[in-house]
Amino acid sequence: MLKKMLLAAVALAALAGNAAQAADLKELRIGILGGENEADRLRNYACLAEGLKKEFKLDKVSLFPAADYDGVIQGLLGGTLDVAGLGASGYAAVYLKDPKAVTPVLVPQQKDGSTGYYSIGLALKSSGIKTIADAKGKKLGYADPDSTSGYLVPLTQIPKTTGVPNDKFFASTQFNGGHENNLLAAYDGKVDVAVDDSSGIGDFKDGFTSGTFHKVVAKGSVDPNKLVEVWRSPLIPNGPLVVRNGLGQEWMKKITDFYMALPKKDEKCFNAIEGGDFSAYVPVNHDFYIPVVDVRKAAIGG
């Protein structure tokens, strides 16, 4: 009887703590992955910060454009970030370290209804590389150790084409500090092939309809006519928007509802933060990412 009373008291205290936390929240801290340069990320997310601040009458909404994916991952694990859009592998990294740290709540949906994308390998046309097989003994560029399309998927899937691990097939592999930097490394001839995220649909001359390739083409940073796609992965699940569980259920629902309404309420802001051919957010849960969690655990651990 005493044990039951103690457990009930603990449960009530936890509920009271969550309620107080929800009522007293003054600042919301949003982590932004390092896909683009910092200035572009801050500019694109400014509307989101302003919208959240106004909607919930917060004192402050802080944006944290981490230098790399691990910065966002550690922020969520350490409780210094509250909300972030993660890649599937980044979510897997958080989950494998602490399954109770965050909850995936939403995933962006493309206009064709899909909730997935591809890792693609890009090379300069002038290199003479037409397929990944032609890149034997060349340099491969990765984006970030915690990127799905920029590391985990090419690490595990390119060998299914070449028949050998990447560190045996290529002369060297290197990380280039994010997706945009990785693509630019190939464009500038610093690596022979770069792997990055892409919708893989639409016109190549537009950099397809979404993803890093699309963003850098839209900004005029690269001329797509000088590039060629040399490899494409199987379909990858879009990464989730996650909310730190420590915020409590009330704030998790408020934040989820805000994002769900954003595409219709402020389409311009939605397009700015998603950067491509997306139409909505749809609900998601952990089950959608179990295959990626399993692959990451087997390939590179937590």
TrEMBL record:
PANTHER family assigned: PHOSPHONATES-BINDING PERIPLASMIC PROTEIN
Family to which the UniProt record says this protein belongs: Belongs to the phosphate/phosphite/phosphonate binding protein family.
Record's keyword terms, sorted: Signal
Leader sequence residues: 1-22
One term under GO cellular component: ATP-binding cassette (ABC) transporter complex
Species in which this protein is naturally found: Neorhizobium alkalisoli
Pfam families reported for this sequence: Phosphonate-bd
UniProt GO BP: organic phosphonate transport; transmembrane transport
Superkingdom to which the source organism belongs: Bacteria
Lineage: Bacteria, Pseudomonadati, Pseudomonadota, Alphaproteobacteria, Hyphomicrobiales
Protein name listed in UniProt: Phosphonate transport system substrate-binding protein
UniProt entry tagged with the keyword Signal: yes
CDD domains: PBP2_PhnD_like (cd01071)
